[in-house]
Amino acid sequence: MTFRTRLLIAFAAGTAAPLILLAIGVRREMDARLTAQYELRVDALVGMIAVELEREAESIELRLAALHSEIDGDNRLRSGVRGDASERRYLLDYAGVAMGLTGLDMLQIQDETDRIVSSGHFRNEFDRKEPGLVALLAATPGGTALMEARRPEGKFLALVRADSFHVAGTRFTLIGGTSVEPDFLGRLAPDEGFSVSLHYAGGVIRADPGPVTSAFDSAGVAGIDGPTGAAARPPTGDGQVVRRLPIAFLEPDPRGGGRVSYAWLSVAHPLSPLRELQRSVDVWFIAAVSVTIVLAMLLAAWLASRISRPITDLARKTALVDLDRLDVEFDTARGDEVGALSRLLAAMTGRLRASASSLREAERRATIGDIARQVNHDIRNGLTPIRNVFRHLSQIERDAPDMLAPVFDERRGTLESSISYLEALASNYARLSADSERRPFQVNPVVEEVIGNAIARGGATVRASLGEPLPAVVGDSMALRRILENLVGNAIDSLPAPGGEVSVSTELISGAPYEPGVRITINDTGCGMDEEQQKRAFDDFFTTKKGGSGLGLSIVKRLVGDLNGSVQLESEEGVGTRVVVELQAVNGQL
Question: Which residue has the higher pLDDT, 519 or 377?
Answer without folding.
Answer: 519
